[in-house]
Amino acid sequence: MTLSPLREEHSPQEADITADGSFNPRFPHAARIYDYLLDGKNNFAADRQAAEQLIRLVPDLRAAAQANRAFLGRAFHDVAASGITQFLDIGCGLPMERNVHEVVQGVHPDARTIYVDNDLVVATHARALLVKGDHTHFVPGDLRDLPALLGRPDLAKMIDLVQPVGVGLGAVLHFLTMSEAKTAMRTFADRLVPGSMLIMSHACSDGLDPQAVEKSRQVYRNSSSPLHVRSCQEVADIFGPRWLWQPPGLLPVHAWRPDPGSGQVSDERHATPACFVGGLAVLSRP
Questions:
Q1: I need a surface site. Which of 15, 43, 112, 197 has the fewest CB within 10 A?
Q2: Rg (CA), the chain
Q3: What CA–CA distance (Å, rounded) separates 166 from 259?
Q4: CA distance 197 to 180
Q5: For the segment 150-181, what is each residue's pLDDT rounded down to a tens digit?
Q6: Residues 177-229: tens digit of each pLDDT
Q7: Using the 8-state DSSP alphabet, how is residue 90 labeled?
Q8: DSSP secondary structure string, 222-278?
Q9: Angle subtended at Cα 198 by Cα 152 and Cα 151, rounded to the nearest 5 degrees
Q10: What is the pLDDT confidence band of residue 18, given thresholds at 50, 70 and 90?
């Protein structure tokens, strides 16, 4: 689940893209680093090397990534169980087992899911592996240009914006600046109807060595996407007053509703450094 920078022609961030528009495996890529942390197969030596650097800095990182993945599955299940049947997974990243459409269709067989990413590497895999039948689709789009994304005709064919939508932002907002992230949340609040739900996880610096956090940022400076690790309070500050956190709130992902639908906090809440915090928020009326 990743989002690459908006690219300008000849930008340094294009190092992972070759002249013919395909990817260059010699440079680490944020989606492939995450794939390696999740024991996936869609990664190359440069990605594995970057991921191992990160693991040396944050030894619990692989477990944290897996906990984040599990959290997203529980949260999407709960949103589907609440009655929402249409979903946007923005910054969807590379396909893994138990993707969003599989989770929500396990609750509502007719649930519709649109996967969104602005990355060429992710788009290729998503179109090949995630678009199945009439209820799943992939569209290119960027969280930093939500009006363009939400106005796409192909999105409108599957997602009715006058009905509540479940939006997934799993491990994606930490690739945006604070200003970009706040703008995105305001746009969602303006364009979605009350009752829409937001599933969010974010890299968190709480409990981590500040030097390790800074060195982790440096690793990502050499990849496809710069990283903005924030404290839990800084993450909360991204969201305006219309986004209401549902029980048990914004907290380390491994502690969020460890049993689907329970609404309870795990007794193991402080067992490991946070690494990722997450939560489920509902859009209220103005």
A1: 15
A2: 18
A3: 20
A4: 20
A5: 999 999 999 999 999 999 999 999 999 999 99
A6: 999 999 999 999 999 999 999 999 999 999 899 999 999 999 998 787 889 99
A7: E
A8: TSSS----B-HHHHHTTS-TTEEEPTT-SEEGGGB-SSTT--PBPTTTTSS--SEEE
A9: 10
A10: very low
- Retrieve residue 285's tokens: 């009326």
Nearest-angstrom CA–CA distance, 118 and 116? 7
Quick one: three-class SS letters along 136-182? EEEEECCHHHHHHHHCCHHHHCCCCCCCCCEEEEECCHHHCCHHHHH
- CA dist 198 and 278 (Å) reads 10
According to DSSP, the β-strands at 243-245 and 136-140 are unpaired
Q: What's the one-letter identity of residue 285? A: R
Cis previous bond, 248, omega within 30: yes
Q: Helix 30-37 to helix 45-57 angle, to the nearest 10 degrees?
A: 70
